[in-house]
Amino acid sequence: MAHRAARRAGLHLRRATVDATGATGLATATVTAIAAAREARHGLDGRRAT
Question: pTM (2 decimals)?
Answer without folding.
Answer: 0.52
